[in-house]
Design goal:
about 200 residues, mainly alpha, Arc Repressor Mutant, subunit A, 3-stranded antiparallel β-sheet, 5 helices, 5 strands, about 70% helix, rod-shaped, disordered C terminus, membrane, transmembrane helix, transmembrane
């Protein structure tokens, strides 16, 4: 079962009976007292979608008990009265308006900090997102420059190192060839037949 708040009950009574209060005239047969306005509890309960006894009990046992006060002449001012002269189930309408204003003010006192806290969180998240986006955009812009610097600074160094290694290898090879001894070539071929004949003739 839905449980209406104090603010919901009082607001509903106010909306339904503000015209009744403003239309009061002396000798008006609708009610006998200007300040105490009869409440249509059945209609209020139907609008709030709760049982009639729930609304009546909240008015009589809770709200009237909290807000009623005794004046200096020992008379009582009731927020809700079971009977005012000949009228039944009445609210002290000017007092009800005061209570309504107080409840609305308390509601805003709770909501305003929550709203500002929510806005602060949203602003912080937006600022963080903007910072991340700016940093990414900056890095993307710097990529071509970094590639250019890398080409200009790294490539000559690599070339110089390669060239130095090649020169070292060339010098080593040349030294190895220069220092190697030259061996004479021996003619191991067999003597010709003419030479053999000459030798025999001698």
């Amino acid at each position: 079962m839905k449980v209406p708040s104090d603010l919901q009950i009082i607001e509903e009574i106010y909306k339904r009976h503000v015209d009744d209060y403003e239309e009061w005239k002396e000798g008006n047969p609708a009610r006998t007292n200007k300040n105490y306005v009869p409440v249509d509890i059945t209609a209020v309960a139907k609008s709030l979608r709760v049982d009639v006894d729930i609304v009546w009990g909240r008015l009589y046992y809770d709200l009237d008990n909290r807000y009623s006060y005794q004046k200096s002449d020992n008379s009582w001012v009731h927020l809700f009265a079971r009977r005012a002269d000949t009228d039944k189930d009445c609210v002290h309408f000017p007092y009800l308006v005061s209570v309504l204003s107080s409840l609305r003010s308390k509601r805003w006192q709770l909501w305003v900090p929550a709203i500002f806290s929510g806005l602060a969180i949203i602003v912080s998240m937006a600022s963080l997102a903007w910072t991340v986006r700016s940093d990414l955009h900056k890095e993307i812009k710097e990529l071509p420059a970094l590639e250019s610097v890398r080409t200009e600074t790294v490539s000559p160094k690599v070339q110089d190192e390669t060239q130095a290694k090649g020169n070292d290898l060339k010098e080593t090879t040349e030294k190895s060839i220069t220092n190697q001894p030259i061996k004479p070539t021996l003619d191991t071929a067999a003597p010709s037949s003419g030479a053999q004949e000459g030798a025999a003739y001698q």
